[in-house]
Write a structure and sequence with these properties.
heterodimer; B: alpha+beta; four-stranded antiparallel β-sheet
């Protein structure tokens, strides 16, 4: 599996406004992990309750796939601009 | 026959080494060469394997009023496409039936359930050779390629 992305660079501007942001994902990931650890007993109980109906397994698969998708975003770059507006998203 | 193999055979003919030694040396030389070949092959494959799908829409070089055009530059990691396609396995079968029905309605006779991981790899591998380069009537140059 790929390494998770470290930074997300967002830049938007139009005639009136300019907005740019470096989002430090490497700081957000530990925070999300802490939240997941705190919530893990609840998640475990929910998964165990839902397991017989099949939704528990699906939920686990969705979590795994979502993490895989997040890790695969490294290198994504979207740059759309015209004369007046610009949108730039980059995942590093 | 390589230089090393020639040298070993010469040494054998000059009785500098025994037949057994020559046999062992030849084996060593062969295994070393095959390892080098496989490493070179793996490096070449890694170089040829594309990592990103790139879509660009830019004004073509000769077009007038190029500043009026929209410019698009999108780079999508192929791993993201792979992960996205893998998500299809999580689609419930009811929804999958609806997807297939919608595709059939559009004239596409294709069952999404038949998409296997090997097919995805083959498809992504084939992207390396793909290049779309279109100049529209408005003077925009649209390119889709893997890099």
């Amino acid at each position: 599996m790929n390494r998770p992305p470290m930074l997300m660079h967002l830049r938007f501007h139009n005639d009136n406004r300019k907005f740019g942001l470096w989002l430090p994902l490497f700081i957000l990931i530990p925070l999300v992990l802490v939240v997941l650890i705190i919530l893990s007993p609840l998640i475990l109980i929910a998964v165990l309750i839902l397991w017989p109906s099949g939704w528990g397994k699906l939920a686990m698969c969705v979590l795994k796939a979502a993490w895989g998708l997040f890790c695969s975003m490294r290198g994504l770059e979207v740059d759309v601009q015209n004369r007046n507006e610009m949108v730039y998203i980059s995942v590093v | 026959m390589t230089e090393n193999q020639k040298k070993i055979l010469e040494m054998l003919s000059q009785n500098k080494i025994s037949t057994e030694d020559a046999y062992q040396l030849l084996n060593l030389v062969e295994s070393g060469e095959s390892r080098q070949e496989s490493t070179a092959k793996a490096e070449a494959e890694a170089k040829a394997k594309p990592k990103y799908l790139r879509v660009t829409v830019l004004p073509s070089p000769g077009s007038e009023h190029s500043s009026d055009f929209d410019r698009v530059n999108v780079r999508v990691p192929l791993s993201l496409i792979r992960a996205g396609i893998k998500l299809t396995s999580l689609i419930p079968s009811d929804a999958m039936d609806k997807v297939n029905e919608a595709l059939t309605d559009k004239g596409i006779n294709f069952d999404v359930r038949n998409v296997k991981p090997e097919d995805i790899e083959e498809l992504i591998g084939a992207l390396a050779d793909m290049e779309v380069d279109v100049i529209t009537g408005r003077g925009e140059n649209v390119k889709v390629f893997a890099e």
